[in-house]
Amino acid sequence: MPEKSGVRQEPDAAFEPEEVRMNQNDPNSTPPVRRKPVRSAAARERSRTLKLLLLIALVLALWVLAIVGIVNLLKRDHTPEPGPADVTTVPQTAEETLPPEDTAPSTSAPDKNGLLFETKEVSTSGIYRGELILVNRDHAYRFEENRETKIISLYTFWRNWPAYSYKLHGSDIQLADFICTKMSEMFDAFLEETGDNGYLITSGWRDYEEQVETVKEMIEKYGSEEEAMKYTAPPGCSEHHTGMAFDAYIYTADGAVYKPGAADMPALYNWIYENGARFGFIKRYDEEKSDITGYSGESWHFRYVGKPHAALIAEKNFCLEEYIDFLRAYTYRNYLEYTDPEGAKYAIWYEKVENETVVTPAVTDSAGTEVAPPVIGDRFPDQAALHLPQGVPCEISGDNVSGFIVTVKLS
Ligand SMILES: [Zn+2]
């Protein structure tokens, strides 16, 4: 920033010579040289010349001071309002010579919903975590960034859950701990509203190796890899890695088994399609969206995305890919306001994280010959500044692609 460095080198004490300061305080003061006792005409002439030079120096110094003053004044006048959008201007002004109050977070007025925004630094590793991460053939699940997700035994959880509102296909099914709760609450509502507990959980969390095995089994089942891959994900790209997805079939009290959504399924079991969103769950793979999701319809696979997103997805008939794309159009300045079917009002917006360019230098051998050229690549910076409302709880989820989705409950 050449402009800034120019200004920063402007006057300090060293710039203003001692003699000039003396003259500045008292224009009639005499410089020490005048105290010499004997003075010839030539000496007087030299003295006059010296006085003239000092006067010129003084005028020049005053000029410089005046110009610096004007420049600083103009810079302050043109410094943008420190609004929340000016992520880049915050550090810039902080380095400059402005008073501290000019670098404080936004003090602009709250918006129509009373939200007052400030910027907050977060780790960009969060892009790969959260309830709204998109995991598909293009965007693999990031195990390392999610190592703290707590995966627990659904069987143990289920045994301790007060209501017997669903069934398990085996004792080895696991899910993220909070999904066990959310899912059980959903099936409790089903039991309460219908008196039935026929949903049967057949699959939950899978690690990478388990997905390798699943792919092998699917190839055997469908006869070819091509056919199998219509229904199952390559290892690393399965939603089951997240612990937020489960597969459910139907196992009735009289022992009949149905595939959800099948033509012969009793209408009662449409309940999960009609009510899952109330509990934050969506049917993830719809046949008519298979071009976008990359999977044929899977009427048995459910994924947690949270409230109010599940309701919005259902209302707009989006698949998750479409929904995340839709949210990317909203910023904190122009957020989506949504009132869910239960009357709760939300603000939702997207915070995109810009890549930074990283240059890896060329590799040379001991003789100095280049053995690998320099590599220019993009990556996310370690930290990103998000625009968040002051003093208001908000949910932040990565999208597993390029940024964060912020959700605020307004009322
Ligand atoms: Zn599944």
Concise synopsis of the structure shown:
The protein is an alpha+beta fold and 411 residues long. It is built from twelve helices and 18 strands.
Could you describe the 3D structure shown?
- This protein has 411 residues and is an alpha+beta fold.
- The chain has three domains: 2-78; 109-132 and 319-411, 2-Layer Sandwich (Phosphorylase Kinase, domain 1); 140-304, Muramoyl-pentapeptide Carboxypeptidase, domain 2 (2-Layer Sandwich).
- 31% of the residues lie in helices and 21% in strands.
- It has twelve helices and 18 strands.
- It has helices at 2-8, 18-25, 41-78, 89-95, 154-160, 177-194, 208-222, 225-228, 271-275, 290-293, 309-316, 320-327; strands at 117-123, 151-153, 167-168, 174-176, 199-203, 245-251, 257-258, 281-285, 298-304, 336-339, 345-352, 356-360, 363-364, 370-372, 375-379, 383-389, 395-398, 403-409.
- Strands 3, 5, 6, 7, 8 and 9 form a six-stranded mixed β-sheet that branches. It has a four-stranded antiparallel β-sheet with strand order 10-11-18-17, with no helix packed on it. A two-stranded antiparallel ribbon has the order 1-16.
- The radius of gyration is 34 Å and the shape is elongated.
- The structure holds zinc ion.
